[in-house]
Design a protein that fits this description.
2 copies of one chain form a homodimer.
Chain A (H helix, E strand, L loop, with lengths): L17 H8 L3 H9 L6 H13 L6 H8 L4 E6 L5 H14 L5 E6 L4 H13 L4 E5 L5 H10 L3 E4 L9 E4 L2 H14 L5 E5 L3 H16 L6 E4 L8 H14 L5 E4 L2 H13 L9 E3 L5 H5 L6 E3 L2 H16 L8 E3 L3 E3 L5
Parallel strand pairs in A: 1-2, 1-3, 3-4, 4-5, 5-11, 6-7, 6-8, 8-9
Antiparallel strand pairs in A: 10-12
Helix pairs in contact in A: 1-2, 1-3, 5-13, 6-7, 8-9, 10-11
Chain A binds a DNA duplex through helix 2 and helix 4.
Chain lengths: ~350, ~350
Amino acid sequence: MGLKNRAGEKRPERANRMEDVAAAAGVSLATVSRVFSQPELVSEATREKVHAVAKRMRYLPNLLAGGMAANQSRVISAMVPVISSAIFAQTIEGLSSGLHGTGYELMLSQSSYEPEQEYSILRAFLGRRADGIVVAGAVRDPHCRELLLHSGTPVVEMWELLEEPIDMAVGFSNHHAAQAAADYLLGRGYRNFGFIGGTDQRTADRQKGFYEAVRAAGLPAPRQVLIHSPSPSSFDAGGQAMARLLDENAGIDVVFCTNDLLAVGALFECQRRGLPVPGRVAVMGFSDLDIGQVSVPPLTTVQVGAYEIGRQASRMLLARLTGAPQETRIVDTGFSIVRRQSA
Amino acid sequence: MGLKNRAGEKRPERANRMEDVAAAAGVSLATVSRVFSQPELVSEATREKVHAVAKRMRYLPNLLAGGMAANQSRVISAMVPVISSAIFAQTIEGLSSGLHGTGYELMLSQSSYEPEQEYSILRAFLGRRADGIVVAGAVRDPHCRELLLHSGTPVVEMWELLEEPIDMAVGFSNHHAAQAAADYLLGRGYRNFGFIGGTDQRTADRQKGFYEAVRAAGLPAPRQVLIHSPSPSSFDAGGQAMARLLDENAGIDVVFCTNDLLAVGALFECQRRGLPVPGRVAVMGFSDLDIGQVSVPPLTTVQVGAYEIGRQASRMLLARLTGAPQETRIVDTGFSIVRRQSA
DNA sequence: TTGAAAGCGGTACCAC
DNA sequence: GTGGTACCGCTTTCAA
């Protein structure tokens, strides 16, 4: 006979409401409400009876109505440039885990790196009265800032260490992290740098830091390939960029990529050409994704705690929403150089 | 002077409501409501005045209140086992894209492959009155089925081709896809099979199909390594499984992995051992992720359209919600063998 | 410990 | 084309 499905299922006209439960249990609407939201105010006998009746009637409290009356949606809304990039997917996972079991639900939207979309997404979030908003990256567009600022909604900007966040921020210094990466490579004796990156703000920060350190060492600026596609992170783009770098610059002995996806793509390109890594050319990544731990050779990279950033963002929001005392508005999750074998 | 942040920002006591806008614009509440939801019913003059006033007052319609009155949340809720796995991340991205610009927002939750969590997540979705629910994988737990069935909410089960979905389904036959993979390998002349997979239902279906084809060819069952971790997809697990397979079975000439993450991990393990792929041992994956297109060698795999599945799910839901006629309840997105170089 | 009733911020039907 | 108004389903004083 198999599992039941919807065929032949007759549905009740209308879902039961609190009022129906109250009537069936012989108590008032207010009492039923208390049973679900402040059970300690109700006598045990009443509580049990209401629960029994509710269960029998398949009553499911309408959280929308509840939220509206209590003026809170219990929704945290998150905006990321792209969902499927391993980098942000991890942050989202951290967020989701942090929210698990708290009664808050996660709403998610992607901006595809387009400013106009950011604005409309944020408006949608506010229109739905999100209790908190989290954004991957700093909100730089003045209209968006203004919108958020004026809304009074708690906001966390992630992935950058902002001096003047709209409200709260969690991340690390992209500048310093890339600088540290360059210093590490310098320390390993590399002198002819290649650089593969994108054009978004975070990547630009990384580039600045990296170039600064290289310059400080008295070396010429790296040969660079910038990926102008909206999403500056794909294996494929990394491979192509590496190919150009290799074709146009014979002497390069190390290539720094602004994220691990690009780096692994670059690694594959070397492999395709039979160039030993790091023997002929070294490769360093940024972000410390799973893949870099198992690639051949395993990827030297900068660990920045993508998951932890999301997790921390949820913590900060929750703290604010529960009125926890003296919260920190800006959290530096730091970074560390992970030395493996590719550089 | 830098960007403005929240410091020194004084916030208005309460956000403006429709009533406030109405008063300021000298029209009735009902008119303002129409301006936002059925503008064609309002004269252009009134419409413009209201818009102007609303803008000046920074009025943002409360979608929660609107939804409550109209009995619709305009939220689609999705449940996946894990968010950060490339496989599901793509499906989520497809869903999100499909919803973009429709006025529907995406709510997301992960079950971590735990049945108890599934139930509570679904309850939360229903409690929030999602207009539609989409689930990665069939809902097999009777309580969950019952819950969904009785709720009357449109439901799409993804990633499997169900004969009796709760409501709607979009996916492909895991059984047939794996069977086709085996047939492909058989056709290429491989005879000594290895199998790396997990223990969840979809994986089990793939295993059955694969083994069936192998048996039908008169060959002994593959040597298998099953990953019992809750999440049967990581590069690392693939590498470890491959190591075991290689250590314990000298004669294996091809290994089929139930997803590309495992397959790429396996690929790396071969590389670590200096075993040529497919020369010494071939590797075939399943799912066709980005990484398999650029790995060395590029991965022969089964393409199943992870993104397209999500996209299609959103289409079906939207069609139902807008009352589109004669929709198909079960959509087979099919699969195809992608021959590259690893097998 | 329980109940009555005034919102929460809109939608939509019905008149005019 | 516009306004009046009865809900939508729950939370939360305030009284009893």
